[in-house]
Design goal:
about 1250 residues, mainly alpha, Leucine-rich Repeat Variant, two-stranded antiparallel sheet, two-stranded parallel sheet, 4 strands, about 60% helix, ARM-type_fold, CND1/NCAPD3, Condensin-2 complex subunit D3, ARM-like, DNA condensation
Length: about 1250
């Protein structure tokens, strides 16, 4: 003992002031002031390290020697001889100072030695009686175990990695002695969960076992493993007060200490944290294996907190790491606990916080890969609970049934809108599990046995319940969750796992495969109209998988599924359009590879958007929009079917339906403003058409997909789209070349006229991009076709067009012979639909010799003047397009007179031919166009005129507009009259297409009043009239134009002088327009409607008693718009999104618009509503009821901003309450208590160790009381 006193005397404890020591004790070792200067000077030249080591050696000698002499070796002997309070305060100072200066070796080692000396002091008996043990000081001493990690985190402060490695290895050796001294005192401390700082003690012990420094440096792994082994042993000693009685609360606190380690490792994506997670996961599994049921509740609570803690969950990578961690830890659970935890996850997926639902959804998605639960469910007749039957273990079955019965009597979880579930609630169910649960025994295991137990267990899940939980998230309030749920359902449809297929069949519902709409199809149909682009994209993927599954199973997909994907091809978002295009392209290829199945439903009614390009002939020899025959409305395009197709009478095959969907959707995106979309469509066209073509061989079965594709092109009159696709293919690839022409030429004339038509359609599309010199096959086919008595009328114009493109390749005698043949047919043959093409080709073959054209024109003019045969008029007009001499003025006067006063003997056919011939002359001369345009417009207005004549007049005016738009602009009222409701259906359809083509090509500008008339087509009942307008307004019309004319449209459509439109039709028009507007523009529209309609109506009420009928109707439209979903306050985006740039931009924009919209409502809209209601209140009626409705909606959305404004009108408040009660809502207006905070869910309960309260801070040490004697 003398040695101890001698060494302690070297510390000069007498130089420590009593005030300094007392302040440390009063702060409970939490605050350390500066060490006194006198003491610092006194030990300036002393080696503190050697003093500490000598004191420890002296204590060891004193405690271990002379055990037989009966000397009292306790603090009873030492306490009167040393100032142990000064000693403890000094040790605490060194420990605290070393923890604050970890990077300095001297201070760091002094802290470790001070801690070791403190442990030696605790080895002396009587340490508790003399208050040597202090929980806070002991906890601070354990912070030394965190020094290696702290040094690695500050590696930038070291010169190089080798220096840091050397320092860390030396520190680990020092900590080896540290943990050995600590190991000696742990059994005698008898630590329990009720002790103060017990949790901090466990946390400091657990921290170094994570192994975060293993991968970063060349650390001595053997020493570190030995260090961790001793710490694990100490934790076991703390947990087990006796060998057979582990403390479950202590185990729970160990798991609680592991929780922040897991959270931190999951939040940081550095590779070192993978080692940390693996280490902690292994240790958690060892605890569960070693302590069995005592560790199970804490393990389950750990899993619940990992799902429930929100730190970092707003980042997608953190969520994925957390989900992987939870799924891995779940695999170690016993069977019943696993089922209970899955049930808890199902409840968590319906909680109020988005991050919790996201984590639960991702975990449930991972669990769908498990094996199915093979137990047969038996419904209980008493309470409907399900009891799995297991013949091999009846006892366990009964216990499970009893447990399920008890659970069935508990209240069912509330819906998603209620408060969050408390994660700790499932702990009780875990604790009440039967004793037969598959939990590892409590006895100790060898390492091999533990390694076997740590393997993942083959757990089973009820796929139906999990899939239903995923399906419920499709209706979630969060767009990210809706998107993720749709993606998961689409992935499940691809699964070949039998339990997954069965679960999907159960979810789809009975009769889903018999033509009825399944649940998944209904979910996809709802989500394609979602406000979030990512949700619409996911819905497109789900619809694609549904159709692909139907094709795989040999069923015909529903036409509505294709129609939804076609509609998404026009979406405003590029990612949605891209997804829809990809889906339709892949489905078209997939349908062609399946066996031919006739569709059991009518063919899909697909929209045919107008051509996005309008061909304007460069020379007067081309007039594609002008008819040639009398009674027809227009020259039939060579790709237009002349009669009913054979396929039309038969049920359409699945491949035809898929190709029709592709032609109706992606094919029209060849004019998309995004180059990426164009390239995507062109790529699919190359895959479906160009790459699949092979040379004709009657002995080899050919691929039918390219010919079906070309058949769809001809069926839908989409030759121009194919031409544009070929032009884009020339730029992007080398597939349009001579080899393609060689392949297609082998099919020409080999099978039938139908195949020849398809070949010619493709050849005319690629001809302008390929310089093909060997056109002998085409000349032979032309001569053969002209000699054929019965042929398809569409073939000859296509052949002539192809010869015109390759005319430069026809030389010598073949060129002269072809020209002579054409001229001879023009002079002798009647009109066969190819007169203009023949004349143009003949003129192109010999442009220097066109006397034949002049002669033929003059001969026809003389015949026309000599007789009233209108066919000769038309022949003269056709040939005049290529004749060098102008047509005779008498011919023009003939057409003018006939248009003004048609001969009485003329029928509908003659009048149609007359209008067509007048159109030819308009193309030939500007003067003729200026003279003929007014009578053509008058004919178009004449409702008693034959339909064919009016149609040809419309097409003639269209041709004039493509050349001389200034001539047609004054006559636009006649063109607009074609789309009036009273006009004939064919004329209305042709008028809608003609207007759309002119607008697309830029020959017309959509100004008022044309704007109003054209937008009215959006609500037309005829699909063929409505569809071109929808295409132009939704895809081509600028958003600024819609925004500037929106309020004007509301006023115009309610004007009594205009054509009446029903209320529902007007709302449909407004809805299409609002879909294009941005949030900011919708806000401005709301302001304009409030000022220009509501305030204007209120001002009129001040001046007169009755409102005009037009303004009354406009008010109804305005109030309906302001109450509608398109004009509602934008939903605040969830903070727990993927945190990408688009998400952040949307969040900022929405916040700004929400703030502005609230100000607008409070400053503009509500005063206008109150003012107008004050005038309408005495009269009542529909308008007053609508004002009450808008007041109710405004109150629900903007309660905080406008409640004080509306409360001043007591009668309006009463009407709002009555309205809410009438529609079944609880009256929510008035002085209501805010229960938002009260309804917030409590945090999950976890055991917490008792902490000593922090002392009150004092500005200075308390004054000593004087001792009075």
């Amino acid at each position: 003992m003398e040695d101890i006193l001698k060494e302690i005397k070297k510390l000069r404890l007498d130089f420590l002031s009593e005030e300094w020591v007392e302040s440390i004790y009063q702060s409970e070792f939490l605050e350390y002031g500066e060490i006194p200067n006198d003491y610092e000077i006194s030990i300036e030249y002393d080696d503190i390290k050697s003093i500490f080591l000598h004191i420890m050696s002296a204590i060891d000698v004193w405690l271990n020697n002379n055990l037989e002499n009966g000397e009292d070796k306790s603090w009873t002997q030492l306490s009167p001889l040393i100032k142990h309070q000064n000693l403890l305060a000094l040790l605490g100072y060194f420990i605290d100072f070393g923890g604050k200066n970890i990077l300095t070796r001297e201070h760091r080692n002094n802290a470790i030695l001070a801690s070791r000396l403190y442990y030696k002091l605790l080895c002396i008996p009587g340490y508790k009686a003399y208050h040597i043990y202090h929980s806070q000081l002991f906890t601070q001493s354990l912070v030394c175990l965190n020094y290696p990690k702290a040094m690695c985190d500050n590696e930038d402060n070291y010169f190089n990695t080798k220096e840091l490695t050397r320092e860390v290895n030396s520190l680990i050796k020092e900590l080896g002695h540290f943990v050995n001294n600590l190991r000696e005192i742990i059994p005698n401390l008898h630590l329990s969960p009720s002790d103060m700082n017990f949790e901090d003690i466990l946390s400091n012990l657990v921290d170094i076992t994570g192994g975060a420094i293993v991968n970063k440096l060349n650390i001595d792994k053997v020493e570190l493993a030995n260090l961790s082994g001793i710490i694990y042993e100490m934790i076991d000693i703390i947990i087990c007060q006796s060998k057979d009685d582990p403390n479950s609360t202590a185990i729970q606190l160990v798991f609680k200490c592991l929780l922040p380690k897991f959270i931190a490792a999951s939040t940081d994506s550095r590779n070192a944290n993978n080692v940390v997670k693996a280490s902690y996961v292994t240790y958690s599994g060892i605890l569960l294996t070693k302590y069995g049921k005592d560790a199970l509740p804490g393990y389950v609570v750990l899993l619940q907190h990992l799902c429930y803690t929100l730190d970092g969950l707003e980042r997608a990578e953190v969520r994925l790491a957390r989900v992987s961690l939870v799924v891995g830890l779940m695999s170690l659970l016993p069977r019943k606990s696993y089922r209970s935890f899955v049930k808890w996850l199902l409840k968590l997926s319906t909680t109020a916080k988005v991050s919790h639902r996201q984590v639960a959804l991702e975990i449930l998605a991972k669990l769908l890969n498990n094996d199915p639960d093979l137990s047969n469910p038996v419904q209980s007749s008493n309470n409907g609970s399900t009891c799995p039957i297991n013949e091999s273990n009846n006892t366990e079955t009964n216990q499970e049934c009893n447990q399920n019965t008890r659970e069935g009597q508990e209240p069912t979880p509330e819906s998603e809108n209620t408060a969050e579930r408390q994660p700790g609630t499932s702990t009780n169910s875990v604790n009440t599990e039967s004793e037969s649960e598959d939990v590892p025994p409590d006895n100790e295991e060898t390492e091999d046995e533990i390694a076997g137990l740590l393997r993942q267990r083959a757990h089973t899940v009820a796929h139906g319940e999990l899939l239903r939980a995923v399906y419920e998230r499709v209706h979630d309030a969060s767009g990210s969750l809706r998107m993720r749920a749709l993606s998961l359902l689409a992935d499940c449809l691809l699964s070949d796992h039998p339990p997954m297929k069965k679960a999907i069949e159960e979810l789809q519902g009975a009769g889903a495969g018999a033509g009825a709409v399944s649940r998944l199809a209904g979910a996809g149909a709802r989500c394609v109209c979602d406000e979030r682009a990512v949700v619409r994209k996911a819905a497109a993927g789900l619809l694609q998988r549904l159709i692909a599954n139907a094709l795989r199973d040999g069923r015909a997909p529903l036409d509505s599924d294709y129609a939804l994907l076609v509609g998404l091809c026009r979406d405003a978002s590029i990612v949605v359009r891209s997804a829809a295009l990809s889906a339709l392209g892949e489905l078209a290829a997939c349908a062609a590879s399946r066996p031919s199945v006739a569709a059991t439903v009518p063919p899909v009614t697909l929209s045919k958007s107008p051509d996005t390009t309008s061909e304007c002939p460069g020379t007067p020899t081309k007039c594609p929009a002008t008819p040639t025959n009398g009674p027809v409305t227009r020259t039939r395009d060579p790709a237009t079917p002349s009669g009913p197709q054979d396929a039309a009478s038969d049920p359409p095959s699945v491949s035809r339906v898929a190709l029709d969907a592709f032609l109706a959707g992606p094919m029209h995106r060849l004019s998309d403003p995004e180059t990426k979309i164009q390239e995507q469509v062109v790529s699919f066209i190359q895959q479906l058409l160009i790459d699949r073509l092979r040379k004709y061989d009657s002995l080899v079965s050919e691929d039918s997909l390219p010919w079906e594709f070309l058949s769809g092109i001809t069926r839908h009159n989409m030759k121009r789209h194919l031409q544009k696709a070929c032009g884009l293919l020339v730029k992007s690839s080398n597939c349009i070349n001579h080899r393609l022409v060689d392949i297609v030429s082998t099919h020409l004339g080999a099978l039938s006229d139908e195949r020849d038509l398809l070949c010619l359609v493709l050849l005319t599309s690629v001809a302008r991009h390929v310089d093909y010199s060997d056109v002998g096959f085409l000349l032979d086919y032309y001569y053969h076709l002209t000699e054929k008595p019965e042929r398809d009328a569409r073939l000859l114009p296509l052949v002539l067009e192809l010869l015109s493109t390759w005319a430069r390749c026809v030389a010598g005698d073949a060129r002269a012979a072809l020209r002579d043949h054409l001229v001879t047919r023009l002079a002798a043959a009647p009109d066969d639909g190819s007169r203009i093409a023949s004349a143009s080709l003949a003129a192109q073959l010999d442009p220097d010799n066109l006397h034949w054209a002049t002669e033929l024109m003059q001969i026809s003019e003389r015949r026309a003047l000599a007789s009233s045969d209108v066919r000769e008029w038309l022949r003269a007009a056709d040939v005049s397009l290529v004749a060098p001499a102008p047509p005779s003025p008498q011919l023009l006067r003939l057409f003018l007179a006939a248009l003004a006063r048609p001969p009485p003997e003329w029928g509908a056919e003659e009048r149609g031919v007359c209008a067509a011939g007048a159109g030819r002359l308009c193309v030939r001369s500007r003067d003729a166009a200026a003279a003929l345009a007014p009578p053509l417009a008058a004919l178009l207005r004449d409702g008693a005129a034959p339909l064919c004549a009016r149609l040809n007049s419309l097409l003639a005016l269209t041709d004039i507009c493509t050349r001389y738009s200034c001539i047609v602009e004054p006559l636009l009222d006649a063109v607009c009259g074609c789309v009036a409701r009273g006009a004939a259906a064919p004329l209305r359809r042709a008028g809608a297409r003609a207007l759309t083509r002119l607008l697309l090509a830029g020959y017309l500008r959509l100004r008022t009043p044309l704007y109003y008339r054209y937008c009215a087509l959006l609500a037309d009942e005829d699909h063929d009239v409505r569809e071109p307008a929808e295409y132009y307004v939704s895809c081509c019309l600028t958003v600024d134009a819609i925004y500037h004319h929106f309020v004007d449209c509301v006023l115009h459509y309610n004007n009594e002088e205009t054509e009446s439109i029903s209320f529902d039709a007007r709302q449909l028009i407004y809805d299409v327009m609002l879909q294009r507007l941005s949030l900011v523009q919708k806000l401005n529209v709301q302001c304009r409607l409030a000022r220009e309609v509501l305030e204007h109506a209120a001002a009129l009420c001040d001046e007169q008693d009755e409102l005009p009928a037009a303004l009354h109707a406009a008010l109804l439209d305005t109030i309906t718009l302001l109450c509608g979903p398109r004009m509602k306050l934008p939903k605040k985006p969830e903070k727990a999104g993927d945190a990408d740039l688009d998400d952040l931009q949307e969040r900022v924009t929405t916040n700004i618009v929400s703030h502005k919209m609230k100000r607008t409502v409070a400053e503009v809209l509500v005063p206008a509503v109150l003012r107008l209601y004050a005038h309408m209140r005495p009269r009542g009626g529909q308008l007053a009821a609508y004002l009450v409705r808008i007041a109710t909606d405004l109150l629900n959305d903007y309660r905080h901003e406008i409640e004080e404004l509306i409360e001043n009108d007591e009668e309006l408040v009463e009407r709002v309450r009555q309205f809410q009660e009438t529609i079944g809502l609880e009256a929510s207006f008035g002085n209501a208590r805010n229960l938002v905070t009260a309804s917030a869910p409590p945090e999950p309960d976890t055991p917490r160790a008792r902490r000593r309260p922090a002392p009150r801070a004092r500005p200075h040490s308390p004054r000593k009381r004087a001792l009075r004697v």
